[in-house]
Here is the input.
Amino acid sequence: MESIDLLVLRSARDWLAAGDRVLLATVARTWGSSPRPVGSMMALRNDGRVVGSVSGGCIEDDLIHRYTTAYGGDGLADGPPEVVRYGVSADEAHRFGLPCGGTLELILEFSPAWQVLDALLSQLDSGQLVRRQLVLTTDKVTLQPTATPEQFSFDGEQMVNTLGPGYRLLMIGAGALAEYLATMALFNGFKVSVCDPRPEHMQTWAVSGVERIVGMPDDVVRDFAVDLRTCIVALSHDPKLDDLALLEALHGPAFYIGAIGSRRNSQLRRERLIEHFGETQDSLERLHGPIGIYIGSKTPAEIAVSVMAEILAAKNGVGLPGALNVASAKASLAALHN
Here is the structure.
């Protein structure tokens, strides 16, 4: 499954190429509670079809009515970008289904240039991170490749949105847990790859839509073009496979690196990496293990839920409290029973 940003941009590009008219809406600013974060996008076609979202649904309905049916079905209006705001009053917040106190500001682009969207998607599909800048007064869009993600910004005159290739998950080990984790990652918009040099494991892989890579995991990590939107999870339970892959991952820019294992096995892994491979406590700070958040999970499916939750927290820049850390939670529970 493609990331929602890429799906919105691709739909808008394809509709425009087919001769349709398109409205591209972006969440520019929010105050109080908001259903969708800044930078969220939605494409609206002149017949009312929508891809993406900017709210829980009511604002989308209003945009459809205002910019399609209000024109008698003849299509979307032309003109420079507009800024619209929803939820200023309590009545509006209630009408549009916004949380109490929520206010949402949108930038509306009418029939954005097909050529610019096509160029943007070409860069994103090639793995580039792209800074898209829109100047509202001129309706001018510029695209600039960048190496550093930049926070979405809107100062009332120009919008800057850093867009990147879809998030990727590379799993080491093709077992049952990997299949559940792959399924969850796919419906969260990740491109998923699995690596396992053991034929007996790869031959039983059953999740479609996942790239299967045969090779030694450390070589695969080295050749994977790891970037800031990549996460790497070692799930093989075999130190010969997991440890070398983790060593490669730890010296790259992946936003999340983790390995399956009990508290004891995780500690032994850290000791091995320090003693035999020259790592330090500081260099292992980025290594998650035991992976996941503590929810008392026992089955592969439950463990996958906890791991995916931790990955999404890291992706979204959310620091998790110590009580959710598996090692800390289990240590506290053990202390209570002693």
Notes: The chain is about 35% helix and 25% strand. The mean pLDDT is 87. The first helix runs from residue 4 to 17. The chain has two domains: 4-124, 168-336.
